[in-house]
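Example record

The entry below shows one chain as it appears in the dataset: sequence first, then structure tokens.
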Amino acid sequence: MQFEFHGVAPLTHTGLIRAQGDEAAKFLHNQLTNDVLLQGPGEARLAGFCNAKGRLQASFIVIKRSHEDLLLICSADILAATLKRLSMFVLRAKVKLSDASADFHLFGVAGAALQALNPAAASAPAWARTDTDSATLVTLYPANACPRALWLAPRDTPAPAGAVLTPNQWDWSEVRAGIASVTQPIFEAFVPQMLNYESVGGVNFKKGCYPGQEVVARSQFRGTLKRRAYLAHSDASMPVGAELFTPEGEPCGTVAQSAAAPTGGFDAIVSLHISAFETGGVRLGTSDGALLTLAPPPYPLLADI
């Protein structure tokens, strides 16, 4: 699966929550799985927002413009509900949360288009942040060794130049990068490690408490984690949230993110029992459903580092 692509994709399925106020960074630090207070100007961060049982209600890419002004990039289909849940925790904190999706452009930039736009960003490590004029670039994990980044700027800023990528091409690159975003079909389905978030910079185990922190820490340090995220391919469409089964008919996992593959069939990120990945024969929907071809994630897991 060495298909590569180059160009720019409008991310219309993505939204922005803005946190502003004297305690904006402190507030988000106390709610998310990652350290927001120590987040520097040259970095963005992946972070999860969990319920009390450690299950992900949302995932964000956090851009900290200052301690008083932060942007949270998330899936548009959960934005309104997530904004409402986060607002319940504000209480007396000096922070205002709002939907800022209409105030900014957000594009995905890949391959030669990213190299032409900003060579430094194309070669930077994942979650590095580069500011140019009014735009912000966040380097993402590559897809099939093809560099990728998010481009964010105020709505009146001209879009970045490059060939047009379709939404499905960008979605496919997200799958091939191996990092699933939380969307409505998988709301509260996984603790962060079931999507490998601790291995891609999405969880800080040294920071203070946040909702679900004890469960997330226990999963990491007491050997209770039995599921990981892997890549999968199938001739059949793999809807997000669909159950996966062993050949014996036992449920063993869930489709976390999927897209049509440019060379045919469908690719997905699946959260799967480790034993099922090792054994193989995993089926979609039922014990005699479409067979999945499985592969490890395209980055080392924390236990392997």
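Notes for this example: The chain has a mean pLDDT of 94. The chain has two domains: 7-177, 226-296.
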